[in-house]
Write a structure and sequence with these properties.
The protein is α/β, with parallel strands linked by helices. The protein has a domain of 196 residues: Rossmann fold (3-Layer(aba) Sandwich). The chain has eleven helices and 13 strands. The protein has an eight-stranded mixed sheet with strand order 4-3-2-1-5-6-8-12, with helices on both faces. A three-stranded mixed sheet has the order 10-9-11. It is globular.
């Protein structure tokens, strides 16, 4: 019987892709969810509730690895004070629940792999290239990522190999950022946002899932790793390539930054800022990205 990988957030965009790839590799997958679902031959579902800090302990007891993807969508709703708390708690309190359960059961797993984001480096613009040693920013996004990773490091305190994957914009068919932008660009109404100079470090969901699998299988992996393609893609370049993938050229003027801020409030920083991010650390371990060209990645997302 294959080893068991427990995934939080396993019913989301990345979790679904990752589950499929793990099963194909011979793993058994357990998924923590708020709503019961029928089990299949290779995938089992367990109930948890982060708000009440309750969990079906069997899910943790059976796990050889845990991949922690759970977290409220940071871009989905306006950042009210209440929403900010929900974004933070969905990441940190869920990790705390996993930690408490591992400790209670005196359970030792082979690795704990947590999602994080390149937002760790802040919602700012700049030409410098961020590495895993770059200090976290003190803005909202940077603070959330810092606390997210701090909660993951609780597992390291139990002697568990812990890996944190700082993810850029994830490309997938009708998923991630393309779920929002695709319908607009498909109709020929896409445009550049703000100055267009802000960097957009991206990664295809296929490569991201392979990186998670690498994290559980490669015992040399520990600490933080950036999951992005460092090709200096700006919003201008991304917008042109996305329009081209639908057979259009951008004809509309740039969307003014002030208008985006008016519509989205503080959340506009996610669209108007971006830094270059290095992925050299994971490459030095021998990991190879299969989608390194933006045009190729966007084309594949349309298949």
């Amino acid at each position: 019987m294959g080893k068991n990988v427990l995934i939080t957030g396993g019913t989301g965009f990345i979790g679904r892709y990752l589950t499929e790839k793990l099963v194909k590799k011979g793993y058994k997958v357990s998924i923590l969810t708020r709503n019961s679902k029928p089990n299949t031959e290779n995938v089992s579902y367990y109930i948890w509730d982060v708000a009440t800090q309750s969990i079906e302990e069997e899910a943790v007891q059976n796990a050889d690895y845990i991949i922690h993807l759970a977290g409220e969508n940071i871009a989905e709703k306006r950042w009210t004070a209440k929403r900010k708390v929900a974004i933070r708690d969905s990441r940190t309190r869920s990790a705390q629940l996993i930690y408490d359960t591992l400790k209670k059961l005196d359970k030792r797993i082979d690795a704990f792999v947590s999602a994080s984001g390149i937002g760790y480096y802040g919602a700012v613009n700049g030409e410098g290239i961020c590495t895993e040693n770059t200090l976290p920013a003190n803005d909202f996004v940077g603070t959330v990522c810092k606390e997210w990773e701090k909660s993951a490091d609780l597992m390291a305190g139990l002697g568990i190999r812990t890996v944190k994957i700082r993810t850029g914009l994830v490309l997938g068919k009708n998923e991630g950022i393309l779920k929002k932008l695709g319908p607009i660009f498909k109709r020929g109404f896409g445009s550049v946002l703000g100055s267009g100079k802000q960097y957009m470090p991206w990664i295809h969901v296929h490569d991201l899932c392979l990186m998670y699998i690498e994290a559980i299988e490669n015992e040399k992996m520990t600490g933080a790793y950036n999951a992005t393609i460092n090709d200096s893609t700006t919003n201008l370049i991304f917008s042109k390539e996305l329009a081209n993938s639908y057979g259009f050229s951008i004809w509309l003027p740039k969307v003014p930054a002030f208008l985006i801020r008016l519509m989205l409030g503080e959340r506009a920083s996610l669209l108007l800022t971006g830094r270059r991010v290095s992925s050299d650390k994971i490459k030095k371990l021998g990991f190879r990205f299969q989608f390194k060209n933006l045009q190729q990645a966007l084309k594949y997302c349309r298949k």
